[in-house]
User: Fold this.
Amino acid sequence: MARPLQFPSSPFGLRQWKLAASRTLSLAKAGAPGILQWFARGPSPADATTIDGDKMRHLYFGVEIKRRIFMLDLFSLKGKAAIVTGAAQGIGREIALGFARYGADIAAVDLNGKRLQSLRGEIEAMKRRCLVITVDLGQTAQIEQMVETAVKEMGRIDILANIAGVNVHKPAEEMTEKDWDFVQDINLKSLFFCCQAVGKVMLR
Assistant:
């Protein structure tokens, strides 16, 4: 049986990784192998399962549970508004859906407007609002306009998830300056200026 674990004082180092791995194993042995999936998608009637707190005294953050609960009971994003960049596909899409399942309204941001419309349908089916904003995040002026639109339409911004990211699949010796600038503009520059624009709103 895995020994009780305390929450690591630092997120870095081999010891902390071993603790996290051991904690995950403890959860699985306690009868909660689907805990991460539940967090990602939220509970559904099809689960017909809960986390048994009597068997599992330590959650990842060291919370002691003495009743049977769904992961959804642990927190709520109801009443919150979130901007998610790169929301048209992949990780960004799943994060947007996850936020919505936990109660947040979503401003879905991407260059691919068609896929954003598909995402909006799924989020609205959860009775949450989804504002679609088509933006080229490589353009700082468009980032500022995106945030202004989100604030105007949603009234507030509580969460910013910078998920947009790109890559140029070429050997290093074939990479051009234009290719390099494209990657840096989306992966680094846009992240900073999205944070700056949203930060100004949060500081008002």
About this structure: Residues 1-12, 35-67 have pLDDT under 50 and may be disordered. Helices lie at 14-29, 35-41, 90-101, 113-124, 140-154, 177-202. The chain has six helices and four strands.
